[in-house]
Amino acid sequence: MILKDHLRSLSLTWMGEHLDEELAEAARKNRTHQELIERLLAGELELRRARAVERRLKAAHIPVAKTLAGFDWAWPKKINRDQIRHLFTLRFMEEKANAIFIGGTGLGKSHLASALAHEACQQNRHVLFAPAVTIINTLAAAQATNTLGRAINRYHTPELLVIDELGYLPVDRTGADLLFQVLGGRYERGSTIITTNRVYKDWAKTFANDATLTAAVLDRVCHHSETIVIEGRSYRMKGRIEE
Questions:
Q1: Assigned CATH for 68-242
Q2: Is the pLDDT reported for residue 193 higher than 50?
Q3: CA gap 3, 11 in Å, rounded
């Protein structure tokens, strides 16, 4: 069929695959030519949107697919549900604001950060998820090979960068400086989500005990930000606690 060949040549995959079906249904339901064309275009656009989301999810490197619906609200002792639900509107991204999840291990900080990253990908936003230690190691290796500029740009350009587990491992001065370059370069340029087990007054321990550097980091991170504090026992201990 010549029409199908033309559709394939134009890379209109969905339209080519569903043309016969849509033509037959249009005849049965007496659809107008405009209605038929609108349905064919809608199907093609939806396929392209789904493929774009799939590409975004793959590029984001989210370790495990998480959703807000899968979060156990009953487990944390303290959590602001309304605040978190508001974050999932992604309005903070429009303002290039940040979100910092603070709490002990096993309270769902990474779950919520992953779910936010997943939601942003669903909205076809450019997202990147990376543990803090991975960012430091990647940039340190790039620095050693004089490719730091290109490597750090990878963390500057996403509309949303998730830095997971900040503060869980000690960071030397080089690592602290590299993290500062990432956070400083993203200031008012894109949104950053951070998960950490350290309250702000202890962030100096994360940034090589350098009070000046820590103050500079906090100034940029907290200027436009939401702080989400989660308290309670680790969810990973739930089974043992309930025994």
A1: 3.40.50.300
A2: yes
A3: 12
